[in-house]
Amino acid sequence: MRHAAHERARARRYAMQALYQWDLSGEQVSVIRKQFLEDEDFSRADKSYFNRILKDVPDGIETIDEKLSGFIDRPLERLDPVERAILRIGMYELLSRPDIPYRVTINEAVALTKKFGAEQGYAFVNGVLDRAAHTIRPEECAQKNRRINGL
């Protein structure tokens, strides 16, 4: 089933909130997932993508955090918890979801950070994910640059 961009964006938002809760509370992801599915309105959200993020990010947290650490200038635990959740989703998408263009990943992460993060946090998130994208997806980034420059 193909979902509209706004449905996937809403799924990311719910996933960010759930990962934030998981990170701070230490509760099991399954308990948090169940709570979100009961409490939130998923009629305009891509529920399957929400579930995918809540499975794949915690399952791959060591790899995700290790990769993220290479693009930030401080220990991951010192990041704002909202920004940490957003960056984890962004890194997951860059690493594991080649079907999602890197610019979409970055734009969605920036939008979430503007809404839920610290005042200038979006600039940090943008920079981290942009550097990561150029390392993880160099061909896709080069293609985008060639199109922009008319090559």
Outline:
About 75% of the residues lie in helices and about 0% in strands.
Task: Describe what you observe in this structure.
This protein is mainly alpha-helical and 151 residues long. It has one domain (5-148): N-utilizing Substance Protein B Homolog, Chain A (Orthogonal Bundle). Helices cover 74% and strands 0% of the residues. It is built from eight helices and no strands. The protein has helices spanning 5-25, 29-39, 47-59, 61-69, 81-96, 102-116, 121-136, 138-148. α1 packs across α2, α4 packs across α5 and α7 (121-136) crosses α8 (138-148). The protein is globular, with a radius of gyration of 15 Å. The protein starts with a helix and ends with a helix.
Topology:
Layout: H1 5-25, H2 29-39, H3 47-59, H4 61-69, H5 81-96, H6 102-116, H7 121-136, H8 138-148
Helix pairs in contact: 1-2, 1-3, 1-5, 4-5, 5-6, 5-7, 6-7, 7-8
The number of helices is 8
Helix content: over 70%
Radius of gyration: 15 Å
CATH superfamily: NusB-like
Morphology: globular
Instruction: Indicate the CATH class.
Output: Mainly Alpha
**Largest pleated sheet:** none
Spell out the key features of this protein.
single chain, 151 residues, N-utilizing Substance Protein B Homolog, Chain A, globular, mainly alpha
